[in-house]
Amino acid sequence: MTPAATVDTRVALATAPETLALAGRLLHEFNTAYDDPTPGADALATRLAELVAAGDTDVLLGDEHGVAVVRYRPSLWSAADEAYLAELWVDPSVRRTGLGRALLRAALERARERGCDLLDLATSEDDPEARSLYESEGLHATEGAGGPTTFHYEIDL
User: Fold this and answer.
1) Cα–Cα distances in angstroms (integers) from residue 66 to residues 45, 74, 142, in the given order
2) 68, 82, 136, 137: least buried by Cβ within 10 Å?
3) Are 104 and 134 in contact (CB under 8 A)?
């Protein structure tokens, strides 16, 4: 059963240059916090603007402390699109306030509004807080509910 959607006024769609700049800064902070490479906040804001303009990406801001990026793609298995939650991050100073949940719910609602029939994401085994959040909102790390465990693989090309 899918949890009921609720509107959280802390979350808004980012489309204006200043809101995409904030999203770029938050994504830069996210990568920096985990010692991952980043092209910098300005480059991220520019890329987000390109993706949003192309129509296949939503950027959601949670106040000034959280960001979610949802990418859309055609499905192989149905006529509907699929959604990929590419990023979800909340500044550690405001974690456990429900902002991550609000961003996740907003991402799910945006995908439903767009007519998507699937949302997928990847997270690491060593992030139990994220996994707990996702599972509490009905996502599962199995192929179908109760199916075998799924794995996300990647390679830099």
Assistant:
1) 15, 27, 27
2) 136
3) yes
DSSP state of 94: G
Domain ranges of the chain: 11-136
- Greatest Cα-to-Cα distance within the chain, rounded to the nearest angstrom: 43
Say if strands 81-90 and 11-13 run parallel, antiparallel, or are unpaired. unpaired
CA distances (Å), 67 to each of 21, 52, 123, 146, 148, in order?
A: 11, 14, 15, 30, 31
pLDDT of residue 2: 47
Judged by DSSP in three states, 129 sits in helix
- Provide the whole-model pTM: 0.92
| Rounded CA separation 134/79 (Å) | 26
- Amino acid code (one letter) for 75: S
C-beta neighbour count of 100 within 10 angstroms: 21
CATH code for residues 11-136: 3.40.630.30
**How far apart, in Å, do the first and last CA atoms of the chain sit?**
38
**Pairing state between β 81-90 and 119-121:** parallel
